[in-house]
Structures are given as C-alpha cells and as structure tokens.
Amino acid sequence: MTKNDPISNYFVVNRCLLSSDRWLSEPFTRGQAWVDMFGLAQHTKGYFRIRGIRVNVERGQLAYSQVTLAKRWQWSRDKVRRYLKELENNKDIIQQNNEVTTLITIIKYDYWQGNNTTNDTTEKHQKNIRKTSNDTHKKKNKKKKKDNKDNKYIAKNSFREESQVFSFDQWLGGVIANKQPHIALIGRYLKYKNAQLASKKVANDEIKRWVKDARYLADFSEERIQKTIKKVESKYPDMWNLSTVRKEIAYG
After folding, report:
1. Digit-coded pLDDT (tens) for 191-229
2. CA distance 222 to 144
3. Quick check: is 164 in a domain?
4. Does a structural domain hold residue 217?
5. Residues 119 and 30 both lie in one domain
6. Same domain, yes or no: 48 and 125
7. pTM check: above 0.85
8. Distance between CA atoms of 137 and 135, rounded to whole angstroms?
9. Domain for residue 152, yes or no?
10. CA–CA distance from 115 to each of 12, 36, 205 (Å)?
11. Are strands 102-106 and 93-97 parallel, antiparallel or unpaired?
12. What letter would DSSP give residue 99?
C-alpha cells in the first residue's frame, strides 16, 4: 500500500451530511457534485421502484435522472448533461438510460471506496433502499389520488348526454372557478389563449393534457407565471403552451 493509494487516505463522512441544509443550500461546485455522486451511489447491491418499475442497482451505481440531479445540484439540465458527458469522456462513469431513469456507474468506485462492506454498513444501506422504495410507493399513491381527483372533476363537469349542446364558455367558467389551483390555472391558460373547444370530449382531453404541467406551475405565484408567459411569448410567438412555460421556469 503506497502513500498515493486512496484506501490509505480515508476520512469518515456520514451520509446524513448529504441531506443537510448546509450541503444542499447553495448550487453545487463541480467537485461537490463528484463527491455527492459517491454518496448517492449504492455500496451494496439493491433495488427500488420508480412508478412501479423495479430498478436494480449494483454497488457503485446510482439511478438518478438528469432532471433530479439538476434540482439537487441547483444546476440547469444542460449543465448536468455536459458535466456527466465530461465524466464519461474521462472514463470516470458510464451512463445507461432506461424507460424510467438514468443508471450511472462510477467506474473506479472500488478504487476510491475500497471493498469494505461490513455487516453494519450493509444493514444501514438496505434500510436506505427500503426507505427509498417506500417513499417512491407513497409518491405513486399520492399521484394516483390526484389523478383520481382530476378524473372525478372531469366526470362531474361532463354533460350526461352527448345530445346536449356543449357550451364552452360555461364549461370554461367552471374550470376557472375550480378550487383545485392547477385545474383553475388550466382554465386561465385556455382563456388567455382564446381557446374554443367544440365538444365535451375535446374539453376533457384538454384538461388531461395539461394536468402535469399545471400541477408543477401551481406552486409558483401568479406574478411569476405571468412574467414567464410574456417571456415565452416573445421567444415562441403562437408556438408556446403550458409545457413551454413549465420548462422555462424549471430550466430557463
């Protein structure tokens, strides 16, 4: 074992630090992001589920999308993409994309971390895996409840018979007055765009189309949303929508 061997130069960092306000309060440096990847990586083989899909993760791997890392590191998604590509070009990592996330393998994980996987470490890490799986399951159930709530709203506000004349203005007024902030936001968006929907089916499909974007935007102030709309309007006249607004707020 030489003096340059990383195994002889350890210092202990509890993973709780990586969840602390002190660690996450400011945009990450490149070095901090690299250390963070080691903290997020599995040090024993495990798995968790995203939207019910099982994701197997080996030692030295982390399953985090670029969007998730961008939020965690307070970077733009493009900066995360460039950074990971640089690491990949330097043969520090390998990226593998699947239908639910990105699997990142730290190539020299054992070189930097050693092979010490004590029973205590394994047990703690397995608890973390179970917690991640449980958290994912809770989020899935929460999303399912929101979807059911939206579907109930749509069903409640649909006309019972196809033969009835559809009044778009009446329908839109009900949407704007809805108590759910993201549904009301969709109504205001349609009014702003001077939309004219010909049938109840088209109107209900329009609600479903923008639910995901509207839920995200509902967390922002009306002033922030309006300011962003003006911005995207100047960039993409007649080509913008709620998804464009959400992306501008998230990554602009």
Report:
1. 988 888 888 888 888 899 899 999 999 989 999 999 999
2. 26
3. yes
4. yes
5. yes
6. yes
7. no
8. 5
9. no
10. 15, 19, 54
11. antiparallel
12. S
